[in-house]
Amino acid sequence: MDSAVTFGRLAEEIAREAGEMLLAKRPARPEVLVTKSSPTDVVTALDRASEELIRDRIKAVRPDDAILGEEGGTTGDGRVRWIVDPIDGTVNFLYGVPEWAVSIAVEVDGEVIAGVVNVVPRAEVFTAVRGRGAWLAGERLSCNTGVPLERALIATGFGYGSGRRAVQAEVLRHVLPRVRDIRRGGSAASDLCAVAAGRLDGYYERGPQEWDYAAGGLIAAEAGARVGGLEGRPANPGLTLCAAPGLFEELHDLLLGLAPERDA
């Protein structure tokens, strides 16, 4: 069996188990354990419990692989690297908003070859293996095509620092009149999967980290979307864009003129 498929199946199995644990253990209102970059950038005990479960399951099968996790940083230095977000959308998780996910990607020699995003509250597990398409519940996904900017439903997200949010609000003020409408779901991984499934036409955000977009980005790309940064760069924390070819370029050019890779 193709090794990428094997990695994908293992990632899916682990993402499903982590999701089941989170549903079983989530209290009515989870408590904030610590904050990170700002008082609104929160971590719950279950963020850490989810990542610990995922790391333990990976190490049991692949002890020599590297793991990058949002909460635990990087461990190991193998040519295979697992990129893990134990709860993408922690604030949604905290408040009971049903838009959060477990995200696991597998990278080999710097290329993401498999990705899984388990949007747990909706019981939707998105999967992709490079070159084999993106899938949900046995159906192959395909992003919307031929949608011009003025009819595009676009998702975005906001950072945690007030200076960054001020710029993001300024950028949004110029984007909103040029598109059909804006959505803000609160989970980059889920937004990217929504583009793959045709529920959104595009997505852009300043600030997502590798664990936010690694799996969802592959899923969107395997569904026919283009995923990248500004001026030919790959997706990155400065700015990540996702849309079908054509709309990607229109959204890119609009954002480029707004200098979105900055903070106040």
UniProtKB/TrEMBL annotation:
SUPFAM superfamilies: Carbohydrate phosphatase. It is an enzyme of class 3 (hydrolase). Keywords: Hydrolase, Magnesium, Metal-binding. This is Inositol-1-monophosphatase. It catalyses: a myo-inositol phosphate + H2O = myo-inositol + phosphate. It comes from the Bacteria. Belongs to the inositol monophosphatase superfamily. Its EC number is 3.1.3.25. Its cofactor is Mg(2+). Gene3D superfamilies: 3.40.190.80, Fructose-1,6-Bisphosphatase, subunit A, domain 1 (3.30.540.10).
